[in-house]
Amino acid sequence: MIPLLPQLLSIEEILALRSTFEESSPNGTVSFLWVLYRKSFWTFVDEGLTDLLSDPEFVLRQMIIHTIQSKSNFYESLSSQLRESIRTKISKLREQEPKRNEGIADFLDFTIRTA
Q1: Residue 5 contacts residue 28 (beta carbons within 8 Å)
Q2: Distance from chain centroid for Cα 87
Q3: How many angstroms separate the CA atoms of 73 and 50, rounded?
Q4: What tens digit of pLDDT does each residue of 6-59 get?
Q5: 1: enclosing H helix or E strand
Q6: 83-109 confidence digits (pLDDT tens)
């Protein structure tokens, strides 16, 4: 059923299910982010950055960073609202732990400039 959710639900409906995913299993956040990724890469990035700012466990952090860095083609346009939200979160990441977050922050800066 979970693989069908991106086809059946809107982004807003998927976002509303976040707490349900998180409460349903120890890997609920990862499952939620995968469903979101299948629906919208840029919304995944925005939500993933929110998670990175909360200093997640190692596995979740690596999943978010690897998924973002492995994306090579962008077929989805980036809205100005989402672009601004992502930029704000990138700035916060740089302030929070500059050395630890420099690579992902630089990668996303470059990516959103070309999106």
Answers
A1: no
A2: 13
A3: 23
A4: 999 999 999 999 999 999 999 999 999 999 999 999 999 999 999 999 988 999
A5: none
A6: 999 999 999 999 998 899 999 999 999
